[in-house]
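Risk register update: the risk of archive-format incompatibility is retired. Evidence:
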Amino acid sequence: MCCKSSRGACGTCRGRVLAYVLSYRGGRVKRSLTHIRICPLAMRQKNHSMSLGMTMFHEVMHVTSAAGDKGYSKRECFRNAKTNPTVARLNAAAYVYFAAENGYSRADWLKYAGRAYDRNGKQDRWTNCPALVRKRGCKGRNGTQCPATCEFVKRQNGEGGAGGGATGETEKEKKAR
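Archived output:
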């Protein structure tokens, strides 16, 4: 259902809400209604089609599973995974980030899902880390300011210097061109 205003069945379309699903608990069982309400704010997002796709996937996770909302940002999802994996497995946003990271090219994943984090929870401090690492590798300041990009490059290329992964493309994506 597309909501034009925050009235009636769309009463939750306020603040930063993009979409929602109504649910309730009956004892230990969570039940979700199958109607996804899409709020007007969802239609005004930057990169509208990608944002709406990620939002719809998030809401479908609520409808089809026991996943709730235990954090929306990458940082919250990462923290949940490290400190409480059970909570992380029941968080709709974690599934969205997993699907995005594994479905998008590296460049699109960074563009649509935000900054990268390494396995220790450190985030790239600069948004242009892929370009910097491509030009100068991961030595010196690039290594400390771009930890997530450098880790990605190391995993892709088996080294820490500049190479295929730093451009935002994996070797598989390059070969497909």
